[in-house]
């Protein structure tokens, strides 16, 4: 669904990504793993248009969207959820969900909110609370619920389980699977919890120093020597 | 004395409420730190002194020097107004229309240089632009008479002097009420919610498909158009304009204090903030020398109002940053209907 070709990107004059080639398949979960500072989050930000692209192409539905600004990418049904700052803290949960629907037809918004609440029933009891008062898990539910309200086709998640307990992280992973299976979402996932993320994924990429060090199916990546070294914190010389 | 005091409080409440409501939309709702708010008020003065006065010169066939010419023109129109009150009301409406249009355009242009700026950088850029325009208007005699100033029509030339303050205060209050209704109607909508969202998190607003710059332009254009109305009213009240009357202290910083005091993102809260501050400030200005002698204050009491400003700002930001009346969720008409249904059951 999204093809990345020879992508070079960074922040201002600081280049982070070097000659990245990748393919995110429609209706699949693709996980990006790698050590801190490897460019995983920058990769997501670049796809969404929040970094400076020096060269390369991002092909989505047969069009190069590398130079398309974020708000137009959003209207192309691409949703990006940063690790933090992904909700409006001073607005209520209900208001957050409504705002997510502002690019849709009025009739459709109500329907989409009901769908979001069916996937995240935990939100029903807290609709009147300010988003800033939610726990970490509730906040992630809200952020992902907002993506569902928008009727997104591609969902890019940047470490959605960061700072959550293992039990809650597992719930998040289950929701991600549910969104892929029930709504056919294409999901691109950046996770520090690499092993578990790959276990729920279809495909995987390993980034090292801003380059793709390995790509393949999630299973292949799980069994790769490089990944084992990375998981154990061993650096081969 | 007390009667005049009340009319003065009402007048300043009305003027500052108009400015503060528009600042509340820009800063309280949209999160735009418009430290150049004084510019929109100055634009109202320019509409009256720079455009309306020229139209009057044209109408009465008066040529020659701008400053002198407008003196003759305003004398002529005042004579006309004295015998035809309708003309005065017409001048007021014309001035408001001119100012709103000019304010709208200037507001839209004013925000453009800051396309990539945020927060402090955005605020300081707007302040700098505002100051630059004020300096130009102060030293260029052909805009609003520079440091000499310029005459403006007395739209209440048909009212005797002793009642003029009262009548003008009620006109200002009426217009302030209309502005309040306008903002309540404009901001209790999905648009208002998007502005609040933009204040919270611009990247997430982009992520939901909205163009931040368009929202800023729209917000600043509307905010400046309304701010310019206050400039018109002030210029017509004083029946003259001098550029130095439109300083950042009076028309940017005081409104910020009033918005924060009353409660940003909340139009009723702003009313309370404006009322509290205006009462204290007017009383302080009038009785500052009585206070000096009563308390044995060892310095010039003219500084008391600035000290009050500083102390209040620190107290608000430290102890109650949400203001006297904190903001509430935006209730759009459909939500209101739903609430009525639920409570009706």
Lay out the secondary structure.
The complex is a heterodimer of chains A (about 240) and B (about 350).
Chain A: E1 2-11, E2 14-24, E3 29-33, H1 40-48, E4 52-60, E5 63-64, H2 70-75, E6 78-81, H3 93-100, H4 106-119, H5 136-149, E7 154-158, H6 166-183, E8 186-190, H7 194-199, E9 203-208, E10 211-217, H8 218-222, H9 225-232
Parallel strand pairs in A: 3-8, 3-9, 6-7, 7-8
Antiparallel strand pairs in A: 1-2, 1-4, 4-5, 9-10
Helix pairs in contact in A: 3-5, 4-5
Chain B: H1 2-29, H2 37-59, H3 66-83, H4 85-110, H5 119-139, H6 141-144, E1 150-151, H7 161-187, H8 190-200, H9 202-207, H10 212-238, E2 240-241, H11 248-262, H12 267-295, H13 304-319, H14 333-344
Antiparallel strand pairs in B: 1-2
Detailed description of the structure:
Chain A has 237 residues and is α/β, with parallel strands linked by helices. Chain A has helices at 40-48, 70-75, 93-100, 106-119, 136-149, 166-183, 194-199, 218-222, 225-232; strands spanning 2-11, 14-24, 29-33, 52-60, 63-64, 78-81, 154-158, 186-190, 203-208, 211-217. Helices cover 37% and strands 27% of the residues of chain A. The N and C termini of chain A lie far apart (37 Å). Chain B is mainly α. Chain B is 76% helix and 1% strand. Chain B has helices at 2-29, 37-59, 66-83, 85-110, 119-139, 141-144, 161-187, 190-200, 202-207, 212-238, 248-262, 267-295, 304-319, 333-344; strands at residues 150-151, 240-241. A two-stranded antiparallel sheet of chain B has the order 1-2. The interface between A and B is medium-sized, with 30 and 21 residues. Chain A: ATP binds at residues 34-41. Chain A: One of its GO terms (biological process) is branched-chain amino acid transport. Chain A: Belongs to the ABC transporter superfamily. Chain A: One of its GO terms (molecular function) is ATP binding.
